[in-house]
Amino acid sequence: MRSVRARAALGATAVVAVALIAAGLAVLLVLHDNLTGQTDLQSEVAAQEVASQVALGVPYEKLELPDAEESPVQVVTEKGEVVAASRKLEAISGTGSARVRPVASGRSPAEADGDDDGDDPGRGEVSRDEPAHSSGTATVDGDSADYRFAAVEATTGAGETVTVYAGAPLATEQGAVETVRSAMLVGLPVLLVVVAGVTWLVTRRALRPVEGIRREMATVTASEDLSRRVPVPGTGDEVDRLAVTTNETLAALESSVERQRRFVADASHELRSPIASLRTQLEVAAAHPELLDLAGAVEDTVRLQDLAADLLLLARLDAGEKPGAARLDLSALVRAEVAQRGGSDRCRVTANVADGIEVAGSRGQLARVLGNLLDNAQRHAEGCGTVTLRARGDGRAVLEVADDGAGVPAAERDRIFERFVRLDDARSRDDGGAGLGLAIARDVARRHGGTLTAGQAPGGGALFTLALPVLR
What we know:
The chain is an alpha+beta fold. The protein folds into three domains: about 5-175; about 240-320, Orthogonal Bundle (Helix Hairpins); about 325-470, 2-Layer Sandwich (Heat Shock Protein 90), CATH 3.30.565.10. It contains eight helices and 14 strands. The protein has helices spanning about 5-55, 170-225, 240-285, 295-320, 330-340, 365-380, 430, 435-445, and strands spanning about 75, 80-85, 90, 125, 130-140, 145-155, 160-170, 325-330, 350-355, 360, 385-390, 395-405, 450-455, 460-470. The two termini are about 60 Å apart.
């Protein structure tokens, strides 16, 4: 059963069926117990009335017994002899004896004890014990029916103990129970059909937006058009949130695919220039060896190699490569990178580095970040650049690389971290690079749990601030 609607309808119907059956059985049991209790009370009252007459000394043949159809009565001695029974009673079961005819007709309660001197035997008593109840049948004028019998003991004035059995018909109880049972047997299937139908309709209506989402996603898959969006029902429920999340996922996929397309296009464009230049030089050298510009060929080869390395690193970062968690001395790393670049006639770099600052991460990737920032400072500085490393009170190491160049316009301080972005498109590629250094630096910083931002240096140039979590 692959349909959610069918499973929901079947499940709801099964749950309701179990609940209704349990409730119906409980109702029937309670109804049966209540009606049986009322019947027991009726039979107990009838037995108490007859037992009271016996205790008062009324002769057995003169006992006022209720109508046999309403309450068949049987008086039985301790020996099992029937001394009184209802008229028209033809058969009985569930009492102390199956006999329905008195065996000692004409005896009074006093005479039953053998007292012939005519003295008043006195008054007997009715047992105060809880009457016993039993189920049985009785046949009156040829009609048999079920009864509940109450057994009440009575003692005559002469000391004879008899048991009075009086019955109450179960026809009312049986009829009520049967009526309720029949109503449940008829109503239960109808109610289950209604529940199944309502659940089917409600589930179909609830899942209609899901079907719309599925169709739209199928269209997106078939057309590969990630600009499409699924309909949002606006109901504020789980389906509404599913649609919103699906649209957010589609937007993220569209943005990712667009970045990949731009990346491939820009990479192809950036690779085309050094390859074309190197090919031209090699072709000229093949035709005219004396015209070979060996230094230019080496420079183009190195530039091509650096660009390929940048592209490979970006590909690894995009693939989710983890930076690692090695403990490294950031202070020593900064000093080594500054010393490696040294100074030049055009730009002198000074460093102010605090000792003992350690971070966790990849030494190679963080060295790449420092190198890119220092290269950027030396490229754009007018005369000097400064590198400062300090520990901030919030548990972060702050590295600041500043230069005294033209700086970065405020409107462009976030865009320069995009891939293949160069603010001065007119400058030569040899001076400006491919526009990947800052993009790589920010990506590596984020993957190390840090940030990289651009601002304005006190001297008016560019200021790049790298913040990384410090190891305690």
